[in-house]
């Protein structure tokens, strides 16, 4: 019998959940095809421009972002010719990387270019083709961004503290983790997957040495564990042929893609009040008292 799918969050709840991750103001949003240097191909993301940061979500209803990109140091935005019909492509040139972006239609590219240039250059660009109402929105966003930066410069410590206070237990602002990361032991991860199969079948957890990580998966009735070793800035999945990836989000994405979606990140349903997740600190304490090897 197929497991019941978790309830889909309502739009208002999605907005509120995302506010728990960051207090940055939302200026623009929509679907984008994104290709960063470490990506082998374009990835389809629901994207939010908050402040001078792009937050990428797997879909429009996800409450936890899978990746983000700080564009405050944008060097330039360049247009690229696209051979695809009804598709526009442009590149964000940053000091450490170049990120290619594609829109699903030629109309939205002008909006994306307009909003990105407005918040990074702190001026409304003159060379974008927008309707009068859209230009008015850019001016409104410009004033909001100027005000935000002024307040941030005046009260940097207060701003940071406020940001930290709004983050969910399992999300670290300075080192964001995938939504399926929980500070639990091997035994606890197994129990979680067995008790709530509808919430997903893959958990990322700390390794026994506190420096590395482990992936626990459940396929049908079989439980497996995989070591993920931190090497420099990269992460290596210990397989017969080791796979090295740039971040933990890519590690989760690898398992999902390799199993063609059969593996799904284990994410707590906010609508289910049974078996609420314990606080991060409590799990960390239990992990210290009863560590398990991957």
Task: Explain this structure.
- By secondary structure, the protein is an alpha+beta fold.
- It has helices at 11-21, 106-121, 132-154, 156-165, 186-195, 248-258, 280-289, and strands spanning 26-35, 43-50, 53-57, 67-70, 76-80, 88-93, 98-103, 202-206, 213-219, 222-231, 234-237, 243-245.
- The strands form 2 sheets. It has a 7-stranded antiparallel β-sheet, with helices on one face.
- A hairpin with a 5-residue loop joins strand 11 and strand 12.
- Helix 2 runs parallel beside helix 3 (132-154).
| Strand residues, percent | 15-25%
Q: Report the sheet with the most strands, covering strand number, pairing sense and barrel closure.
A: 7 strands, antiparallel
- Across the major sheet, the strand order is 4-3-2-1-7-6-5
Rg computed from alpha carbons, rounded to a whole number of angstroms: 21 Å
Helix content: 25-40%
How far apart are the first and last residues' alpha carbons, in Å? 30 Å
Q: From the helix content, strand content and strand pairing, which structural class follows?
A: alpha+beta
Summarize the helix and strand pattern as letters: HEEEEEEEHHHHEEEEEHH
Number of DSSP strand runs: 12
Features:
294 residues, alpha+beta, seven-stranded antiparallel β-sheet, five-stranded antiparallel β-sheet, 7 helices, 12 strands, disordered N terminus, disordered C terminus
Task: Describe the structure concisely for a colleague.
The chain has 7 helices and 12 strands. With 294 residues, the protein is α+β, with helices and mostly antiparallel strands. The strands form 2 sheets. It has a 7-stranded antiparallel beta sheet with strand order 4-3-2-1-7-6-5, covered by helices on one side. Strands 8-9-10-11-12 form a 5-stranded antiparallel beta sheet.
């Amino acid at each position: 019998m197929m497991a019941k799918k978790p309830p889909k969050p309502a739009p208002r709840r999605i907005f509120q959940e995302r506010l728990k991750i960051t207090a940055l103001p939302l200026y623009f949003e929509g679907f984008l095809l994104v290709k960063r240097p470490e990506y082998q191909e374009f990835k389809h993301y629901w994207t939010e421009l908050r402040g001078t940061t792009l937050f990428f979500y797997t879909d429009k209803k996800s409450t936890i972002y899978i990746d983000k990109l700080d564009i405050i140091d944008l060097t330039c935005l360049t247009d690229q010719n696209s051979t695809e019909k009804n598709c526009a492509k442009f590149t964000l040139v940053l000091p450490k990387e170049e990120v290619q972006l594609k829109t699903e239609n030629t109309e939205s590219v002008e909006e994306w270019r307009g909003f990105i240039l407005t918040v990074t250059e702190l001026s409304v660009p003159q060379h974008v083709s927008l309707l009068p109402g859209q230009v008015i929105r850019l001016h409104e966003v410009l004033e909001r961004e100027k005000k935000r930066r002024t307040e941030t410069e005046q009260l940097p410590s207060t701003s940071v503290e406020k940001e930290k206070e709004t983050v969910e237990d399992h999300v670290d602002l300075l080192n964001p983790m995938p939504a399926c990361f929980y500070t639990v032991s091997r035994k606890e991860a197994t129990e979680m997957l067995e008790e709530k199969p509808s919430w997903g079948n893959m958990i990322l957890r700390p390794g026994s040495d506190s420096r590395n990580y482990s992936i626990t998966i459940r396929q049908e009735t079989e439980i497996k564990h995989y070591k993920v070793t931190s090497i420099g800035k990269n992460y290596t999945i210990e397989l017969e042929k080791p796979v090295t990836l740039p971040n933990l989000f890519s590690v989760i994405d690898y398992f999902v893609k390799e199993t063609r979606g059969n593996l799904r990140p284990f994410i707590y349903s906010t609508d289910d009040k049974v078996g609420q997740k314990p606080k991060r600190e409590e799990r960390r304490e239990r992990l210290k008292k009863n560590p398990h090897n991957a």
